[in-house]
Design goal:
The protein has 12 helices and no strands. The protein is 71% helix and 0% strand. By secondary structure, it is mainly α.
């Protein structure tokens, strides 16, 4: 399986681009200016001193882009982790447990899934005057888990009828132990795929609520950069360097995260394998 992963060009390219963005967000802030510093050169286009120019307040766009990438990755990783944990718990229990418990969890997942995510995020974010990174990540994570739970449940439904699960039942193992010890190891690859997809989706969700002024209040993020570009009508006046770089980073990360998920699914899912 690992040999197939290493030979897949689409997966390698997608992983390389995602890794480059992650490394930029992790280590880049060590090599740029203070993202909150004012350099008294407002709306400066890209030049030798400011590689991505300055914003209307005279702040270095490159520094804010790099630090904003780190912030969005932190929010996305935290939200993705919450979504995956909730999705795994509800998906595994709902898929393995028969009867009222399984049906109740499936019904709850379907109810949460039909809620429009963006309005829910807006309402929840608007309830708090000051919003930290953890709060925004928690809000996104609490509304983003139904898809993972639904997909994991479908996988568990097929696994619970396998021979090794029946042997575990005959041996006298309890349902919780079977779900954790016997079923979960077969789900690890799928859980990793779900986290990759949730990470990209959470970054997009953070950008969406930040663009309307409901993101983290005391941090620079990619969505925050787009918010200020929107406030100052950067598209109308032609200040492309204030909105194009953050939009491009969000697009690249989201698109190539989807490609990674698609290729990993085609490799790990027996019904979709092309080799």
């Amino acid at each position: 399986m690992w040999k197939v992963l290493l030979r897949d060009r689409q997966l390698l390219v997608a992983t390389g681009i995602v890794a480059l963005i992650v490394l930029t967000g992790v280590f880049g802030p060590l090599f740029v200016r203070n993202p909150h510093g004012f350099y008294w050169l407002p709306n400066q286009p890209p030049c030798d001193e400011f590689l991505l120019g300055t914003d209307p307040f005279g702040r270095d766009v490159l520094a804010r882009l790099v630090v904003g990438t780190r912030t969005s990755l932190l929010v996305g990783a935290y939200a993705g982790l919450i979504s995956v944990l909730i999705g795994v718990a509800i998906g595994v229990i709902g898929g393995y447990m028969k009867g009222v418990t399984g049906e109740a969890l499936n019904l709850f997942t379907n109810i949460v899934m039909v809620f429009p995510m963006l309005p829910v995020l807006i309402i929840m974010a608007a309830l708090f005057e000051r919003r930290s990174l953890l709060l925004v990540g928690t809000i996104i994570g609490l509304v983003g888990w139904p898809w993972a739970a639904r997909c994991i449940r479908s996988q568990v439904l097929s696994l619970r009828e396998r021979e090794f699960v029946r042997l575990a039942r005959i041996s006298g193992d309890r349902g919780a132990k079977i779900a954790v010890v016997e079923v979960m190891p077969y789900m690890l690859a799928y859980i990793v795929m779900a986290f990759v997809l949730m990470l990209g989706g959470a970054i997009g969700a953070e950008a969406g609520i930040s663009m309307i002024g409901l993101g983290p209040t005391e941090a620079v993020s990619l969505g925050n950069l787009l918010f200020w570009a929107l406030v100052h009508e950067a598209t109308r006046v032609g200040h492309w360097w204030t909105f194009l770089p953050p939009g491009l980073v969000i697009t690249l990360f989201t698109v190539f995260s989807l490609i990674m998920h698609k290729r990993m699914d085609q490799i790990f899912n027996p019904r979709l394998r092309t080799w």
